[in-house]
Each structure stands twice: as C-alpha cells, then as structure tokens.
Specification:
Layout: E1 10-13, H1 29-41, E2 46-47, E3 50-51, H2 64-70, E4 81-82, H3 86-94, E5 99-105, H4 108-115, H5 119-135, E6 139-145, E7 149-150, E8 154-155, H6 158-171, E9 175-180, H7 187-197, E10 206-210, H8 217-226, E11 231-234, H9 254-263, H10 272-283, H11 294-303
Parallel strand pairs: 1-2, 1-11, 3-4, 4-5, 5-6, 6-9, 9-10, 10-11
Antiparallel strand pairs: 7-8
Helix pairs in contact: 1-2, 1-10, 5-6, 6-7, 7-8, 9-10
The protein binds 3-hydroxy-3-methylglutaryl-coenzyme A and magnesium ion.
Length: 304
C-alpha cells in the first residue's frame, strides 16, 4: 500500500519563526538562539531562524539581528529568514543571512492583512527581493499561504494557487512551500492540490507547510507522501500560528512528524529525542499548560 513512497524526507523546522511569532510571552534572545542551536544539533537540515519583518507588526521577532549575530552555525545547515520587502532583505543580509524566504498568498484578503498589499503588489516586490538575494548568493524559498482555505474568504481553489506558484518559480525561488495557514485542509484537498501543481512544480522544489488546527496535518502529510512529496515544514513542540490569520493554531509538531516517519521506516537524519529536548526547552519559556505536540503529551503520560 505504501510502496513507492519516499524513503527519505527533508524536514524544514519553523519553530523559531512560526512557532514564536504569535506567542504572547516574550522569549529572551539567548533562549531563541539556544533553541535554534538545539534544533540544528538534533540533525535538522533546515532551521528557519527568524523574520526581518516590521517589529510593529510582529514584535515577538524584533530581535532578528541579535538572533542572527549570536547564532553558532552548524556546517551544512540552512537558516532561512523571512523577508517581507527590500528593507527586510537589506536587514537580513547585513545580519549575515544566507538563506531567505519570501511569502505571499493565494487569497487576496489574507495577503492584504498579512503584508498590507495585494498579491500582485507582493509578487512585484518579491521579484526585486529574490533578484537581489540571488545576486548576493542567497538560497531562496517562497511561501504561498492560504493554499487551501482562507480565514476571510473560505475555500481556495487549486487553480488560484497555480499562477502564484508560477510567478515564484519564474522569479527564481529554489523551493515553494504551500501553506495550510489555518490548519483546515483535509487529505482530499491535498491530493487535488498536489495533482494540480506537479506538472509545474518538481518534487525537488515542492514543500508542504501544514498547521494542525483540526488534527488533520499528519493525514495530509501521508497523502502528500503517497504522491511523492518529501519536503515538509513542522515546528518543535507544535508551536505556531499567524497573528494575521484568526483561528490558526500550531504547526504540525516536528516530534509527531518524526514519530510517524521513523515508525514507517522513512529516514530523516533527525534525532527525535534531540527535537523533544529542544521543544521542552522552549516550552519552559512559554506559559503553556499542555504542549500542542501529541508526542510530548504521550511521553509525559508514560513518565507520570
Ligand atoms: P507597512 O506598514 O505597509 O510598511 O507594512 P511600510 O512600507 O508602509 O512601512 C511602515 C514602517 O515600517 C516604516 O517605518 C518602515 O521603515 C517600516 P516608519 O517610517 O513608520 O518608522 N518597515 C520595516 N521595518 C523593519 N523591517 C522591515 C520593514 N518594512 C517596513 N522589513 C510590511 C508592510 C510588509 C512591513 C508589514 O506588513 C509586515 O512586516 N508584515 C509581516 C507580517 C508577518 O510577519 N506575518 C507572519 C509571517 S507569514 C506566516 O506566518 C505564514 C507562513 O507561516 C506560511 C503559512 O502558514 O501559510 C509563512
Ligand atoms: Mg505558518
């Protein structure tokens, strides 16, 4: 039944950015840096580090420069940072970023709320951002948020995602991550979007970014795996959410993803215990009664 699914999965860890951007409790810069380092030490190949967005819009990540300067980089690990515009890119490059991510949406209203501009305006700005980032030797990722459902507009047709992905590819991004921003997608929608996109988006550049609001994220991963997708975003501890997407809860927890993949014999190169330790570490800095991660809750029950 699972013959032909990828034997190797690449996980893009977004806990230090998506995971912390919506947390009400301020996290000290040193703790963010330690968290990122623990995640990289656990073997994660890509650890999104922070975002050079407006500190007025996302005060939680206002220390992006300090985080990047303090970071002890591990060889072979990518540390992408979100940049919303040329000013963000300038800040990111000055802080030593070598990997960047631009982010737009398939829904007009979400794009407006998140970036204060239309999809077309965001794409025009990102053309300049990606060109400048590439000229500076950076690796670049492009996110398409609300690829399934928009908190303001409802269901988004796969046909609305296609032109946005085409534009991102044309501007030269190395990878496109399709975001279920509010964690509302179900496997049939994932199957349809993958089928629609595969003719234009090669698997080597195809990533999914599932939030887990309704508990469907792992089912969505399994569906995409069966279609050959092998790059998935997730967040240690299951933290995450977007301040401009009401109703969005955490990302799929990296521990939950690893538990399923390793149990299925799929390799990731990531140490589950190391990720769980990093998740426990950052949860210790947040006021949360129970972690969103199923794996951590199960471990706590076993230990009790
Ligand atoms: P704006 O207010 O329209 O910006 O915001 P502006 O260009 O008019 O500038 C206003 C002020 O902001 C100016 O300062 C600028 O210098 C400053 P002032 O003159 O008032 O003192 N400014 C900046 N400062 C620092 N860094 C910058 C920057 N840019 C302008 N880069 C803007 C437009 C794009 C900046 C704003 O809307 C913004 O920062 N948005 C980011 C929102 C965000 O971070 N959302 C969460 C990440 S996306 C996400 O979570 C989804 C994802 O996980 C995938 C998924 O789940 O689907 C990726
Ligand atoms: Mg997200």
């Amino acid at each position: 039944m699972f013959q032909g699914i990828p034997r190797l999965v690449r996980i893009v860890e977004v806990g230090a950015r998506d995971g912390l951007q919506n947390e009400p409790t301020p996290v000290p810069t040193e703790a963010k840096v330690r968290f990122i380092e623990m995640l990289a030490d656990a073997g994660l190949p890509v650890v999104e580090a922070t975002a050079f967005v407006s500190p007025k819009w996302v005060p939680q990540l206002a220390d992006a420069e300090q985080v990047m300067h303090a970071l002890r980089r591990r060889a072979g690990v990518r540390y992408p940072v979100l940049v919303p515009n040329l000013k963000g890119l300038e800040r990111a490059l000055s802080a030593g970023a070598r990997e960047i991510a631009v982010f737009t949406a398939a829904s007009e209203t979400f794009c407006q709320r998140n970036l204060n501009r239309s999809i077309e305006q965001s794409l025009q700005e990102f053309e300049q951002v990606v060109r400048a980032a590439k000229a500076a030797g950076c690796w670049a990722r492009g996110y398409v948020s609300t690829a399934f459902v928009c908190p303001y507009e409802g269901a988004i047709a796969p046909e609305a995602v296609v032109p946005v992905v085409e534009r991102l590819l044309a501007m030269g991004v190395d990878e496109v991550s399709l975001g279920d921003t509010i964690g509302a997608a179900v496997p049939t929608q994932v199957a349809r979007l993958t089928e629609t996109l595969l003719p234009i988006l090669p698997l080597e550049r195809f990533a999914y970014h599932f939030h887990n609001t309704y508990g469907t994220a792992l089912a969505n991963v399994l569906t995409a795996l069966q279609q050959g997708v092998f790059i998935f975003d997730s967040s240690a501890g299951g933290l995450g959410g977007c301040p401009f997407a009401p109703g969005a809860s955490g990302n799929l927890a990296t521990e939950d993803l690893l538990y399923m993949l390793h149990g299925m014999g799929i390799e990731t190169g990531v140490d589950l215990a190391g990720v769980a330790a990093a998740a426990q570490f950052i949860l210790g800095h947040l006021q949360r009664e129970t972690p969103p991660s199923s794996y951590l809750r199960a471990c706590a029950r076993v230990e009790a």
